[in-house]
Amino acid sequence: MGEMSQSNRVGGMKNIYIIGIGLIGGSLALNIKKLNPDAVIYGIDNNAEHLEEALSLNIIDAKAKIDNIVNADLVVLSIPVDSSVIELPKILDNISDDTLVIDVGSTKTDICNVVANHPKRRNFLATHPISGTEFSGPKAAFLELFQNKTNIICEVEKTAFKLQQKAIELFVNIGMRIRYMNPEAHDKHIAYMSHLSHISSFMLGKTVIDKEKNERDIFDMAGSGFESTVRLAKSSPEMWTPIFKQNKTNVIETLEDYIKNLTQFKELIQRDDFDAVFKEMKNTNHIKQILKGIN
Amino acid sequence: MGEMSQSNRVGGMKNIYIIGIGLIGGSLALNIKKLNPDAVIYGIDNNAEHLEEALSLNIIDAKAKIDNIVNADLVVLSIPVDSSVIELPKILDNISDDTLVIDVGSTKTDICNVVANHPKRRNFLATHPISGTEFSGPKAAFLELFQNKTNIICEVEKTAFKLQQKAIELFVNIGMRIRYMNPEAHDKHIAYMSHLSHISSFMLGKTVIDKEKNERDIFDMAGSGFESTVRLAKSSPEMWTPIFKQNKTNVIETLEDYIKNLTQFKELIQRDDFDAVFKEMKNTNHIKQILKGIN
């Protein structure tokens, strides 16, 4: 990248609008600013406090309103997925022919469907950066969030060549690897690889809190194992409820599989079939090899 | 601790026998050696390869056999809990009146019961250092494992005063906080705080592997969330099977609660009751405050 000019490292984009200046939007803003200090980052957010925070943390250069996006080179839509499907068509109505609009939501079928026949469909790229933490809001944003993470891009062929190019330059320059999938496959697989993890973690947290609520100090017994499995139960319900709603069918399927496996494991213990209990765990140890190389 | 002599920092104990030189046993060995370089650490392990590894990693000073423990000041029993209940009475048969024997297993009722009437009961202290990783064997051992972690001690009143004192000196000097419980309460609560996490993680791993086994490269979609919830599925089945066996009744109860909560969450999604889905997650977010201060 030595020969690349700074503006090329973000695809020559200068006026950047981030709608939803939280963990993902904020971290993207930090990266764009680092790649191109000349870029002007405008923040748009329903949450006035978050917007002030983003400004004082220098994540954004200025606050803006949705009407201002007419001069945008890039619009990033990083809000809950139920709001995205409402806002995206309106955004496309108001941009220039050269504006790139990306979303970063955890579901891809509904958002692709809602703009399938929009005259500006070519200006939109559906993406899912698989990167996050259990924290939210601009304070949670950090520069390294996307390093060595995967970005799933859907229906790339429906986006204008030049805008595909700009988006991919940006993602590669912030350290991401790109994978292409269709929206339905994305939503089916991400239900297993991400949505189920969140529910398993939330329900683990609930189970333990319900049981132990009257026990003082019992959480002194929590070790790093519990912490690790329950970490995602700190995630934002505002963000996750619409994800489960949009991906309802797939999420229900993963939950049925998971409950079936848990029930079977419980029955093995009840029947004192500890050879089978051992075997189940031994087979699943295989996850070690599978996960190797993710980080 | 400036005025403490080195030998006092491990309760004046010199001949140390570690039976089972894995993650916990090995990490204890490293700590004892650091606190008292004059201590001689003997390793005993069924696994000849682990024993060689422990020796070449300088975790132990020498290999030993179970018959050698007659001169032991401290015997640490850090083997799977089904073996512990067999070995502990034999160990107590063979030690001197001044020897301290501790176990570090994840279940406490059976081990306390098995020596309840042993003439050397006063030489034994039942402990559970709540510290571990998903890795096992001597290579997994490290000095900092116990820093700021909790050690649960059971039936402390049944151990001789002087030996209580030596054990507590050791645990405090390796950075642990001590909590006292009875074995039944320990096993009931640890089922929720630890054993359930392991099963939820193993079954999450199984569910995803079963579903995705024919999908090439699908694990590129795994993010840090999946990694975190599935981490414990890398744990040793050799260690965990006997834990679930000894703690069968409590583990089944936790699994029934967990399955009930998952089923209810699934039904809320099926009924499109997303207000309730939101509320469930919001209530569980409370885990943030609960876990604060664990690390």
Q: What is the strand arrangement across the widest sheet of chain A?
A: 3-2-1-4-5-6-7-8
Q: What is the overall number of helices of chain A?
A: 11
Radius of gyration of chain A: 21 Å
The quaternary organization reads as: homodimer
Coarse shape of chain A: globular
Biggest sheet features of chain A? 8 strands, mixed
Which CATH class of the largest domain in chain A applies here? Alpha Beta
Helix content of chain A: 40-55%
Query: Which structural class should the secondary elements of chain A be placed in?
Result: alpha/beta
The most extensive interface, with participating residues per chain, is:
A-B, 93 and 93 residues
- CATH superfamily grouping of the largest domain in chain A: NAD(P)-binding Rossmann-like Domain
**CATH architecture designation of the largest domain in chain A:** 3-Layer(aba) Sandwich
Give the integer mean of the pLDDT values of chain A: 94
Got a strand count of chain A?
8
Domain count of chain A: 2
Helix/strand order of chain A: EHEHEEHEHEEHEHHHHHH
Distance between the termini of chain A: 23 Å
Uncertain spans of chain A? none
